[in-house]
Each structure stands twice: as C-alpha cells, then as structure tokens.
Specification:
This protein is of the alpha/beta class. The protein has a single domain, classed as 3-Layer(aba) Sandwich (Rossmann fold), CATH 3.40.50. 38% of the residues lie in helices and 18% in strands. It has seven helices and seven strands. It has helices spanning 14-28, 62-67, 84-91, 94-99, 120-133, 147-150, 174-196; strands at 3-8, 32-37, 70-78, 81-82, 106-113, 137-138, 160-163. Strands 1, 2, 3, 4, 5, 6 and 7 form a seven-stranded mixed β-sheet that branches. Helix 1 (14-28) packs across helix 7. It starts with a strand and ends with a helix. The mean pLDDT is 92.
Length: 200
C-alpha cells in the first residue's frame, strides 16, 4: 500500500485544518495518509517538549520519512519563511541526505498566513529547498485544478495555502479546500506510480 506522510507544524490550528483536507485528498487517491506533527522549539535552555502531544497526531521521527513513499510538508509562515520547529526537524535529516534515502520520492508543500500577501509563496519555496537537496521531486498544483484560477484567497501552483486572517480564525474557503484535496490526491497518485513503474 502506498503511504504518504502529511507532516506539519501548526500553532493556532489553521495549518492543521489544511493538513486534514490534504490527508483527505491522499486517501481519495487510494493511498494512505500518515499524519504527523513536530514539537515546538524554545529559546529557554533545558525546556523540552512533551514526548507525546496532548492532542492531535504524534510527533514525527525520521523513520516516518523512511517508511513512507511521499511527503506533504506544511508550516505557517514566519516572516516569509517556514516556522522554526519545521526547520529544526528538517535540519535533523542529514542522515537521510547522506544515504540518499529520500531520492526520487515526491513531495508537496502547504502553508497558512494571516494576510493575502503574508509570504505564502516564499514560505512554500523555503520548505521546498531542503527537500530538493534531498533529491525529492516537487509536485505542485496544476492549472487543470479549476479552483486555482478561481480562488480569491489561498492557493498557488507552488502548493496549497490558506489565508487565516489576523486572528487566525477565518474558515478555509471552498476553493482552498478543493486545492488542498487536489494536491493530496495528486501526490498520492504520483507516489503510487513511482513505486510501480521500474526505470527504463
């Protein structure tokens, strides 16, 4: 069975909500979605996160990356970049880079911002860069997804996105939801094809 890791960090819940729609899309493709999160990081020395989150999915380990066939990575934006907890997790994957463990696996990215021009595309790019270095294959949102042309909120060819509003409480729009599901479904399909088709 093809399995796709949906890995995200969410502080106020908007990115987590988007992750659920992406996981729905993965499941629609016939693949299985393995949903994981990463713990927060702190500047207080000696302070560590709980081993298991109080609610939501478990924390990811590098084994989740090794055991799955594709990755969909999500983070809220921090000054046009991914949030520190996600960067911290990715910085710990150098062993996979050295072994080539993620080469030729598909990946996609998603984000949530407070405003329309809050750095969505640069955040998506910032998450893509380390995965390109891992040798992974970027799966975006094609314009055959009609909501990509119609959306007046989140969504781009780089990946799924959501405009959460200044208070972070704005609901995901129909277009944002459809783009997120379409992205999850596409990664699931691509991961399955890459597993089944031998190199020529």
């Amino acid at each position: 069975m093809t399995e796709v890791l949906v890995l995200y960090y969410s502080r106020y819940g908007a990115t987590a909500q988007l992750a659920r729609h992406i996981a729905t899309g993965v499941e629609k493709s016939g693949a299985t979605a393995r949903v994981r999160t990463v713990p927060p990081v702190t500047t207080n020395l000696g302070e560590t996160a709980q081993a298991v989150p109080e609610q939501g999915p478990p924390y990811a380990t590098t084994r989740d990356l090794e055991e799955t066939h594709g990755l969909i990575l999500g983070s809220p934006t921090r000054f046009g970049n991914m949030a520190a907890p996600m960067k911290y997790f990715l910085d710990g994957t150098s062993g996979l880079w050295a072994s080539g463990g993620l080469v030729d696996r598909p990946f996609a990215v998603f984000t949530s911002t407070a405003t329309m021009h809050g750095g969505q595309e640069t955040t998506l790019l910032s998450m893509a860069l380390p995965l390109i270095h891992q040798g992974m294959l970027w799966v975006g949102v094609p314009y055959t997804v009609p909501e990509l042309t119609n959306t007046s909120s989140g969504g781009s060819p780089y990946g799924a996105s959501h405009v959460a509003g200044p208070d972070g409480k704005r609901e995901i729009t129909r277009d944002e939801r459809r783009i997120a599901e379409a992205l999850g479904e596409r990664v699931g399909r691509v991961a399955a094809r890459l597993r089944q088709e031998p190199a020529a």
